[in-house]
Amino acid sequence: MPAGPALDAINVGGLVHRVLAQCLPGRVSERDIASEVWRQLQRCGTRNPAMRNRATLLCRRYVDRFHPGPSATLVGTEMTVANVRFDAVWRTGHGVWADEIKTGPHAPAGQLHRQLLVGHERWGDAFLGVRVLLLGSPAASSFVRRERTR
Question: Which helix (H) or strand (E) holds 144?
Answer without folding.
Answer: strand 142-145
